[in-house]
Amino acid sequence: MQVIEQLKAMKEDRFLAIYEQLAQDGYGPLDGEVAKVLKFRPLAIKKLPMEKRAKTAQSLLIRGGNAELCYELFGTYLMTKTKDLVIDFLDGTDVQHEEGMVQNIEEQKPAGDKVAATVAELDKKYDVGDVTLYLSMAAEQWPSVPEVDSVWRMRG
Known about the structure:
By secondary structure, the chain is an all-alpha fold. It folds into 2 domains: 2-66, no CATH class; 82-154, no CATH class. It has 9 helices and no strands. The longest helix is centred in the middle third of the chain and has 15 residues, at 50-64. The two termini are 15 Å apart.
């Protein structure tokens, strides 16, 4: 579960930045779950500082090991903030897609021999933290392409 490993290694301020980026009308993306854990009514959760909500959300994801929810959170962040990074990775590794969305993940896999060079180009163009975050997702999405996992793990 690479996305959970990435989450565990992520500093609180980085997670907070992602959480705030996805907030809508003052609500963080996981505030409903946070409210349940903290025994708040959903509308009252906005009274807590975003830092507290994000810290609780990160803890919930780590404790629960919910890779699917974590993957969804990170994917939404990347597609919202830097969709071109996703598109450039897919194009650079010969994965057919439609605006960053891969229709058949089992059939459309990155060309292993193009992963390292593509990632080197992404690092020049995008925030390295965002590239690493995307690689954790790609490694989880394509476990049969060991080059993706290897490049992600080398970033430590």
